Every structure is written in C-alpha cells, then in structure tokens.
Amino acid sequence: MRDDERGCQVAVSTGTPAAHARRATGLVAALGLLAGAAVLSLLVGSEPVGIGQVLRVLLADDRSDAAVIVHDLRMPRTVLGICVGVALGLAGALMQSLTRNPIADPGVLGINAGAALGVLVALVGFGIGTFRGYVWFALLGAALSTVLVYAVAGRGPGAGAPVRLALAGTAVGAALASCAEGIVFLNPKSFDEYRFWIVGDVAKPGMAVVGQLLPFLAAGVVLALALGHRLNALALGDELGGALGVRVVRTRVLVGLAVLLLSGIATAAAGPIAFVGLAVPHLAGRVTGPDQRWLLPYAAVFGGALVLLADVLGRVVLPSGELRVSIMTAVIGAPFFVVMVRRGRSA
C-alpha cells in the first residue's frame, strides 16, 4: 500500500463491520431501485408494453411492433439514461468533495459550459453532427474551461482554494455561455441544430451513441472510484491531507480529469441536464455519511435511477407529447435545492 493510501486509511473512520454491512445492503437495494427504474423505462410510454411482451422481446426472436418499440426506441433510451445519470451523479459528488461546497456541481468549474461551446463549434464551424465527431470537441471545450478556471484561481493569495475555484468557475462558465449565445445569434442557421441539443434529452441518440460513450464512461468511473481514499483525507483540509501522505495537487488534477470526462461525455451525449449532479450526492450522503468510498458508488447508482425516473415521468405527465428529461430533472431538483438552502445546508 502506498503512503498516501495509508494516510487516507486513518483520515476517516472505517466504521464497524455492521456499518459496512448496512452500506453494502443499501447499495444492493439502490441497484434494485435502478433495475426497477430501467424496467419502467422499457414499459412506459405513448404505446404501453406489457412485462410479458418485454420478456419475449428480450429473450426470443420477436419481430412484433413491441419488439421495434423496445429494441429500437426504449432500450437505447434506457441504457443512455443510466450512463448519463451515472456520469452526472459521480461528477457532482466529486465536485462537492473537491470544492467542499454542498451546492457545487460540474457547472462550478465551467465544464458544462465548455463542453456545450465545444459541441456548438463542431456543429456550426465544422458541420459535425455525430457523437463520434463532436465528443472530442466537447472534451476539448471542457478541458480548456477547466484549465482556464485553474489558471484564474491559481493566482494571488489563497491560490487554488475551493472558494476561489468556485468563483472562477462561475465566472468562466458565464463567459463561455455568452460566447455560445453570441455564435448562435451571429449564425441563425445554427439555431435549428443547436436547439435540439441544448435542451438535454436521452430520447434521440441511439444505441450506436451508447457504444461510443461506454469507453469514456468506464475510464471516468474507474478513476473516480479510485480517488475515494484520497478525497476522505482532503476533506480534513489540504495541510492535514498532505501530512497524511496525500499529494494534494495531483489528487485535485485527477479529480478534475474525472469530472471532465464524466461531465463532458454526458453533456455531449444528452445535452446539458441540470440538478442531477447537485441533488444526487446529498441523497447518497444521507445514506453513507461523508465516507467517499461509499458515497461515490451510491451517487453513481442514484444518478442513473434519477435520470431514468425523470425520463419516465416526462413521458406520462402530459396528455399528449413528452417533456424532455432536462425539464423534469429541473422540476424535481429545483424544489430540492430550495429546501436544502432553507434548512441551512448550503455553504
């Protein structure tokens, strides 16, 4: 075991075996919730499909109308919703731990705004309209915004402090969002393409996008979960974390890289989806406490479940038509945010 991992072991109490067993049992229950949300996503829609039909479609060579609905429409939507929710839930948990700010999400470092601007440049400047093409622009935009935030926050007294990161990220994100609006204003033809993407949704992309997304998601998830020990130590403060053997700067860079990957690919695949990265870490923390080794996997599972449930609600809330998942997450997340602030949970 490396020195930084030894130090992290003493940073947060490991808890009793009974506590570990409760958390493990809770994680299994959370996975059950995610599985239930996935089943609902396959069943519910403008054309209801029975559970028996879904099983026949999944287990047999069924060529009925139900097979078209499940295979071609709802299965890709369900899998993409899980991937996007996992990415946003993990990214939000990492951001709140990194900045020590309970109302932080990936937008704090301007990552979502950078990714959105990158996609817009790909759509307008290069005529690239596929995920395989513009995901690289999204990641580049997210990376440049992160570097810019760290450059701004790394100057002067208190360089690199969490509060300075949050303030710099907010300013950079606002500037990048203004640039995107300016591009659309100067090039009205781009609006028709951009408006379908900017309102986050998981219905339009197909299974091909999911396959292209998975390698990026896997890399981000593995990196995020591997940082749990170090984040526990950094929660005690940079000085004490360093004394425990954690390489503070390297850990922050790795956390930023994980957030960049997770948030960048989620934004590229489904557009901006708000409040998932904000609300999910709080829900996970109420179950696990501050231990990041448990909070991160819980946040991933809860994130996937929240996006799927929001998508399902969006399909049935109107008598005709659907509400996009980003609208539903805002409807769910905004009251949560207000209640959290009123209870004094915000910093």
Automatic annotation (TrEMBL):
Keyword Membrane included in the entry's annotation: yes
GO cellular component, one term: plasma membrane
InterPro entries: ABC_BtuC-like (IPR037294), ABC_transptr_permease_BtuC (IPR000522)
Bilayer-crossing regions: 24-44, 78-95, 107-128, 134-153, 165-186, 206-227, 253-275, 295-318, 325-341
Subcellular localization: Cell membrane
Pfam families cross-referenced by the UniProt entry: FecCD (PF01032)
GO MF terms, alphabetically ordered: transmembrane transporter activity
Keywords recorded for this protein, A-Z: Cell membrane, Membrane, Transmembrane, Transmembrane helix, Transport
Record's keyword annotation contains Nucleotide-binding: no
Any single biological process term in GO: siderophore-iron import into cell
Membrane topology note: Multi-pass membrane protein
Family, as annotated: Belongs to the binding-protein-dependent transport system permease family. FecCD subfamily.
PANTHER family noted in UniProt: FE(3+) DICITRATE TRANSPORT SYSTEM PERMEASE PROTEIN FECC-RELATED (PTHR30472:SF1), FERRIC ENTEROBACTIN TRANSPORT SYSTEM PERMEASE PROTEIN (PTHR30472)
Protein's name in the database: Iron complex transport system permease protein
Origin species: Amycolatopsis umgeniensis
